[in-house]
Design goal:
Elements lengths: L1 H11 L2 H12 L3 E6 L2 E6 L4 H10 L3 H16 L5 E5 L5 H9 L7 E5 L3 H14 L2 E3 L2 E2 L4 E8 L6 E2 L7 E12 L11 E5 L5 H7 L1 H5 L3 E7 L4 H10 L2 E5 L12 E6 L7 H15 L1
Parallel strand pairs: 3-4, 3-10, 4-5, 6-9, 10-11
Antiparallel strand pairs: 1-2, 7-8, 7-9, 11-13, 12-13
Length: about 280
């Protein structure tokens, strides 16, 4: 606080000196930056704050990737919708969407986190911001599985998906449930999936919701087996976008957002049957 006041008095409120230093450090050229997933043209001196924000966002995935995606998901959620936060961690998506729900009556939020240690903080945030939480992993079928933690909580994964981010021996057992076994309120659902390799299983375990035409959008934060996922969802009438930019999604895009096309006349039952054949042929 004290340092901020000093900077404000000796730098921010000294415009000639500030302009001199800013030009010396950053130059005076126009430059393209990325803020909130948007490419913007700024001047390195005149709009220096945006330039510095863009530089900072490249260092942190929350700012670089998730902020823009979160804004886009909020735009998709209407009054009466239910948001399912699968792999919620401490609930950053759920907490921000809960705040926006003050302007959208009837929005319900359910957050799922498998790690009991992380869930303690998720539950505290759920109580603070008004959303429901479940300490359970989401998968294709009900089961119990072993999970492996890493140095930070957001890399926790099931032991058969372990990678260089995980710490061998740092394990815990957890319950798994498919979304079809969970009572989910509301007619229209938006799903966010961040489960470190189990994306296909989450989709299969939720397919009854798709068959009932309840899912309006599903977002995957890094999806393995993306070809299978996209083929199954395309057969059910979904279109694909980059979750950050809302541009049409290229193959194997990291932020995959699938939105149901209401103009599609495809039957979900037929899509489920063809997807089951695809799964059996590749299993």
């Amino acid at each position: 606080m004290f340092l901020g006041k000093i900077v404000d008095r000796l730098f921010i409120k000294k415009p000639r000196f500030r302009r001199l230093v800013t030009r010396a450090v950053y130059g005076t050229d126009d430059a393209n930056v990325n803020v909130f997933g948007l490419k913007l043209l700024v001047n390195s001196a005149r709009e220096n704050g945006y330039l510095r924000a863009s530089n900072a966002s490249r260092k942190y995935s929350l700012l670089k990737d998730e902020t823009a995606t979160l804004m886009n998901l909020i735009a998709l959620i209407d009054r009466g919708d239910t948001f399912l936060d699968v792999g919620a961690n401490i609930g950053i998506f759920s907490s921000v969407i809960a705040r926006s729900a003050r302007l959208k009556p009837g929005v319900r939020i359910m957050a799922f986190e498998v790690d009991p240690s992380t869930f303690v903080r998720l539950a505290a945030n759920g109580k603070e911001h008004g959303f429901d939480c479940m300490n359970v992993g989401v998968a294709e079928v009900a089961a119990t599985a072993t999970f492996v933690r890493g140095a930070v909580s957001h890399v926790t994964t099931r032991e058969d998906h372990v990678n260089s981010y995980n710490i061998p021996g740092l394990t815990f057992a957890a319950k798994l449930l498919p979304l079809s076994d969970i009572e989910i309120p509301g007619r229209s659902i938006v799903i966010k999936v961040d489960v470190e390799g189990m994306e296909w299983e989450v989709l299969c375990g939720a397919w009854s919701l798709f068959e009932d035409d309840r899912v309006k959008a599903i977002y995957f934060d890094g999806a393995k087996e993306q070809g299978k996922i996209r083929e199954r969802l395309a057969g059910a009438g979904f279109e694909f976008y980059d979750g950050r930019t809302l541009e049409p999604a290229e193959a194997n895009v990291f932020s995959l957002l699938a939105i149901k096309s209401r103009s599609s006349g495809l039957a979900l039952k037929s899509a489920a049957a063809s997807s089951a054949r695809l799964y059996n042929s590749t299993a």
